[in-house]
Design a protein that fits this description.
alpha/beta; Metallo-beta-lactamase, Chain A; 211 residues; six-stranded mixed sheet; 26% helix
């Protein structure tokens, strides 16, 4: 599986495009906000002759879903995520105004819900959804055992964790979820977070002050 990273929007959010030898691909956390960012994502897909199968979200915060409406219109695919985070889609326009985003905000309803243990298959690749609430009630991580990679959203960062002072945040739940569900993954598992650089489970077990 190939992991292609794009860093989008003023919040510097990580959007991931995954594909394998079949050319089937999925997009995790489409944060493309400007037309230039949208074009960059489409150009890569067209250049590689990829076939987009699904659009996934780790959670519903606006910086991770900015591009959902654009992709839904372009590919005819609705985003999927945890139902508990649908509240952020419903309040997206008013919420983003508080952060200074007054234009180009288009909420997009989910087309399907994912929860703990659900499998996402595209081409010859399979991801498993891991529900780790705390940053948001519906935060999901996506784990590919075969390739040894985890897409952690804003649950786990290099030497840090997601903030818990936003709506639905819960520090204890976040720490418990990371400890019980993520730390037990193999040390060599590469963690691709929603912001900042990649890390590994092994590195975080030793260096993350919250664990």
């Amino acid at each position: 599986m190939v992991v292609q990273l794009f860093t989008f929007n003023p919040v510097q959010e990580n959007t991931y495009l995954l594909y394998d030898e079949t050319k089937a691909c999925i997009i995790i956390d489409a944060g493309c906000y400007t037309s230039q960012e949208q074009d960059a994502l489409l150009h890569f897909i067209e250049q590689k002759s990829l076939s987009v199968k699904r659009i996934l979200n780790t959670h519903g915060h606006f910086d991770h879903v900015f591009g959902n409406a654009f992709l839904a219109k372009h590919f005819g695919l609705l985003p999927e995520g945890h139902q508990a985070d649908e509240v952020f889609i419903d309040t997206m326009e008013s919420y983003t105004k508080a952060f200074g985003f007054t234009q180009g905000v288009f909420p997009q309803k989910m087309g399907g819900y994912l929860s703990e243990g659900d499998k996402i298959v595209f081409g010859n690749t399979e991801l498993i959804a891991i529900h780790v609430p705390g940053h948001s009630p519906g935060s999901l991580c996506y784990y590919c055992e075969k390739d040894g990679v985890l897409f952690s959203g804003d649950v786990l960062f290099k030497s840090s964790i997601g903030r818990t002072d936003l709506l639905g945040g819960d520090f204890a739940a976040l720490i418990n979820g990371i400890t019980e569900k993520l730390v037990s993954l193999p040390d060599q598992t590469v963690v691709y977070p929603g912001h900042g650089p990649a890390t590994t489970i092994g590195y975080e077990k030793i260096n993350n002050p919250y664990l």
